[in-house]
Amino acid sequence: ANWAYHDVIVNAPMAFYYFLGTFFAVVGFLGVFGNIIVVWVFSSTPSLRTPSNVLVINLAICDILFSALIGFPMSALSCFQRHWIWGDFGCQFYSFVAGITGLASINCLAVIAVDRYLVVGQPLAMLNQSHFRRSFYHVLIIWTWACVWSAMPLIGWGEYILEGFGVSCTFDYLTRTTWNISFNVCLFTFCFGMPVSVIILSYIGIIRSIAKNRKEFSSLTAENSSRARQEIKIAKVFAVCMTAFILCWVPYATVAQLGIYGYDQMVSPYTAELPVMLAKTSALWNPVIYAFSHPKYR
């Protein structure tokens, strides 16, 4: 990982650092602004204050924290100085918070996918709304799971290091010790592979339920039928959100896997930084998707 510290600062064009700093600042601002609007709309609109939407508000809070961290002051100011200016403690703090919010986001999307499956897959039971207490339990589990995995490098399993052009920090996916490899394999399996699998399986279940329950939908009253169609539309909106999130993170996950499985010669500052840039945009797409697609949000 030597390139992450000194060589990059000498070799990378100054203009690229300024571009990177501006990019992180703009993406961070848009992510914070857009998701604050999401929290306000979903918490202040009576028809949107439902147990299911507690998860949506939680997702927006994850994205606000994630966006605030990558914007000013940490990443952007480091870019303008052309090196990480916050020291080792700052690197650990940045990585820990970014880890928590990123992992909480994908786990929240997985829980939302299961929730959509249960709602759409049981049209006759839709009047029996889930309780707010259950949703808050789900939120607690999501944050606890994210905190546990993000804390591991702080207590010795895995490590946090500078990444890409040395202006942000992340999990160490380059050091090839057995201890570090085992952490990264488990992290990828349980914190990326498992949530993505849950999302995919949930939406396969949604598609099968819609096809299977067409007759059941037709037997509903006009009011319940309208509600069923609306729930299906909302499921489609979240399908787009989940697809966008996964597409933003797949290149980053791929680079991490290349590093951890010994193909680190393929991981240059540029091939490491470009997926980081894409991943950092993951927090700003949901407000845009809601604005154009969500039947109640609009």
TrEMBL record:
Give the signal peptide range: none
Question: What is the species of this protein?
Answer: Helobdella robusta (Californian leech)
Pfam families annotated for this entry?
7tm_1
Entry's transmembrane regions: 15-42, 54-73, 93-114, 135-155, 181-206, 234-254
Record's protein name: Opsin A
What PROSITE patterns has UniProt attached to this entry?
Answer: G_PROTEIN_RECEP_F1_1 (PS00237), G_PROTEIN_RECEP_F1_2 (PS50262), OPSIN (PS00238)
GO CC, one annotated term: membrane
- Provide the primary localization: membrane
